[in-house]
Amino acid sequence: MENYNEIKINFEKFITTFKTDVNDLEFRKKSFANFISKGFPVSRDENWKYSPLVQDLKKFSQLNYKKSGANILPNALMENFEHYSIIFADGVLILTDSNDAGLVIKKNNSFLKSVKKAGENPILNLNNAFADQGYLIEVSSNISLTKPIVIYNYYSKNFLSNFCSSKNFILLNEKSNVVVYEKTIYDSSIEYLITSNTEIFLAKGSKLKKYDLNCNNKHSTIFNFVKANLDENSELEYFTFSENINSCRDESIINLNGKNCFADVNAIQLLSNNCDHEIKLQINHNEEHTRSSQFVKSALYDSANAIFQGKIFVDSKAQKTDGYQLSKALLLSDNVKFFAKPELEIYADDVKCSHGSSSGSVDEESIFYLRSRGISKEDAKMMMINGFLGEVIEKITEDKFKNIFFKKLSHNYNDD
Amino acid sequence: MSNGQEFIKNYKQGSDYAHGFVTDIETIDVPKGLSKEVVHFISKQKKEPQWMLNWRLKAFDRLQSMKEPDWQKPKYPKINYQDLYYYSAPKSLTDQPKSLDDIDPEIRKTYEKLGIPLLEQKKLAGIAVDAVFDSVSVATTFKDKLNEIGVIFCSISEATREHPELVQKYLGSVIPMSDHFFATLNSAVFTDGSFVYIPPGVRCPMELSTYFRINASNTGQFERTLIIADKGSYVSYLEGCTAPMRDENQLHAANVELVALDDAEIKYSTVQNWYPGDKEGNGGIYNFVTKRGACRGKNSKISWTQVETGSAITWKYPSCILQGDNSQGEFYSVAITNNYQKADTGTKMIHLGKNTRSKIISKGISAGHADNTYRGLVSIHPKATGAKNYTQCDSLLVGNKCGAHTIPYIENKNSTSEIEHEATTSKISDDQLFYCRQRGLNQEESVSLIVNGFCKEVLQQLPMEFAVEAQKLVGISLEGSVG
């Protein structure tokens, strides 16, 4: 068993400076004790088998918590369309409150709300112990927001501490409708640990579209956790674009708790250099007539490493489930690695569940076809990769965001 | 009536487990428990050379520091290894039978009941059989004929005495002595099993077959099979198993090693029908088997076919290590679980050589309160240029109290390789049932027909003799699960 003495000291220091109520304090202490009892995850643990974090977390013998850094978002990073904004700069929340009826955006002070099942996940326990920042978004019943909400996460060069944790809530009341775009930019050169824990509640008939863009992380170790609970007739569209992200685990658990709810989860991993990115996705079908779809594509250059672990769980009462999962990877260099573990765990008989996974290189015949039409080899390859990844972006239902991500894709190739 | 049909008939009449009888014969047991003395005793009984005893003792020592794995899906109560017998042999076999006529009539009766063509006179369609009763190999048929062409087919104990150079060279070369807990346990206390050596360029003219039976109670069966196919040879090997009905769970932890050299091919088929326990899930065999084949040579091929219908818990992953360039691995599996049976089975395909290919077809059928898991690994190493894998695993659920799970691990470290994996889960549709019923089949016949269709791709891979049996077994295993 490793010695977490320094982290214990860090925690003691944190709880003396962080002002909170008794219940919350108890919860934090319990979470921390849970973390200490298991320690950082090891690759022997089935849940962390391929995770890049297993190695990278060893770097953190202490978790220095200090509010510091830029506190400001460079203007160039701001989106130029109309939107509500939530800004995290170096882990500190800068809020733009909304005045619109039906929308509440505020600092999340009720950290306790997510006490429910911290479970076995050691990093989630760590997040529960240390989380001190976070936003809360609540949309009232029958409101369809016309402007999207944009969440900016910015880590600047001035960031001094090596650890930050946030805990967020998105709550959609009945028949509400909203688009959330979350953008994370890493500019720091310090090795730090970022954990975020977002809980999403979708009430009856509500609809959330969440698009995430994560770019260029070289130094930090990241654990993003999203848990979504869907009630009757609600819909979640969740798209993640991870470009050159190193040492990161994106973990999501989606609970389909009401009849006729639908989760559509799509992701792109576009990795080069020595990037190491993991997607872990679990969809729990807990009720009859629920549907889910997972579609993940990875394009890997240089010595990148991608991991996809997707799971469809079907409870014995979740008859008439329709679960679908597809993961495809393009291996574009000799040194890349791709690991996949597409899992099915099914306890109901009247279901339609399938998964597929394939990995390989660019089809030489298609390249030949393009070249015979006068396109250079490089361009032909780019077109192929573009088309390959574009298929996932096509699934985005908001045109504005579809274009943003397509632009992102082509921009990427121009850089090469 | 062929033996296969008789076997099915018996099965049906008994309506439960037809092989559940106990043969009343005197046996010699070693004292209970796992100890150095027991290892010495087994080795002495087998009249083994010193090197073999040393090998066992080394495994025994390693075992002391090993833990039982616990990552599998089916959990089981802790096995008390000190409460098991590690050796049990019919007394009349202590003096090895000189000829087939010397075999204890009681044992012969048992095998007759099982439908095993033990006596050469019967000459069932030219299958050579090595029958293993508890811990001792009873008889090997067709020995002379095989000897003529240089094929060695005998019990592993005999091989350690007669062909030590081959055993020493290959034993433990595919499954290292301390690979994991059960493999190490087997290495220390393995009792008997088959040994096959096919010389270069020989195509084995008949199917080789082993029949395993656990008779004594509280005994673990630890057999060890080693098959070596030398350059350019071919062999097809069949394995079948049964056990009496008992309330307690019995452990079966076998090791099977296959080695295929250049251009050689081994086809290994299993119909596993150990006692599955009763309808409430009491008793039954724990089938924790390690099966692994190494395609050492260029263009070699190993093909595993398994029909798993028995055992309380089936936990095994017949694997292929594709070392030689252009070598091929295949895995065809049907796993049927009913009542409280549990299966966690699949395969590992390790691609090391260039242009290696593998194919996995797995069909899981789950009924009653059973849990059926496919777990498989496809790993393509950096040097396996041009490697290809195709995996298909389908699950069928009968009833809503059972579970079907698919856990594939895919590791691709070579950009010129291709891996494809697909899996589906479904149930027997009402339309299909209606169609069959309309044509005059009853509910159970309909289910059996549909399930057989579902498994067809795998059953086709079985040698003829087995295919007929297996098809019927598929239907029988599901009896009582519908309606």
Give your account of this protein's structure.
The complex is a heterodimer of chains A (416) and B (483). Chain A has 7 helices and 19 strands. With 416 residues, chain A is of the alpha/beta class. Chain A has one domain (5-362). In chain A, the strands form 2 sheets. Chain A has a 10-stranded mixed β-sheet with strand order 2-1-5-7-9-11-13-15-17-19, covered by helices on one side. In chain A, strand 1 (84-89) and strand 2 (92-95) form a beta hairpin. In chain A, helix 2 packs antiparallel against helix 4 (122-130), helix 5 (364-371) packs across helix 6 and helix 6 (377-393) runs antiparallel to helix 7 (399-415). The longest helix of chain A is centred in the first third of the chain and has 17 residues, at 22-38. Chain A is globular. Chain B is an alpha/beta fold. Helices cover 24% and strands 34% of the residues of chain B. In chain B, the strands form 3 sheets. Chain B has a 10-stranded mixed β-sheet, with helices on one face. In chain B, strands 13-15-18-21-19-16 form a 6-stranded parallel β-barrel. Chain B has a two-stranded antiparallel ribbon with strand order 1-2. The longest helix of chain B has 17 residues, at 443-459. Chains A and B meet through strand 18 and strand 19 of A and strand 22, strand 23 and strand 24 of B. Strand 19 of chain A pairs antiparallel with strand 24 of chain B, so a sheet runs across the interface.
Q: Please describe the biggest sheet of chain B, giving its number of strands, its sense, and whether it closes into a barrel.
A: 10 strands, mixed
Q: Biggest interface in this structure?
A: A-B, 35 and 34 residues
Multimeric state: heterodimer
Globally, the shape of chain A reads globular
Q: What structural class is derived from the secondary structure elements of chain A?
A: alpha/beta
Q: Measured on Cα atoms, how large is the radius of gyration of chain B?
A: 21 Å
Give the tally of structural domains of chain A: 1
CA distance, first residue to last residue of chain B? 31 Å
Strand order of the largest sheet of chain A: 2-1-5-7-9-11-13-15-17-19
Main beta sheet of chain A: 10 strands, mixed
Gyration radius of chain A, rounded: 21 Å
Mean pLDDT of chain A: 88
- Beta percentage of chain B is 25-35%
Residue stretches of chain A low in confidence (pLDDT < 50, at least 5 long) are none
What is the N-to-C order of secondary-structure elements of chain A (H for helix, E for strand)?
HHHEEEHEEEEEEEEEEEEEEEEHHH
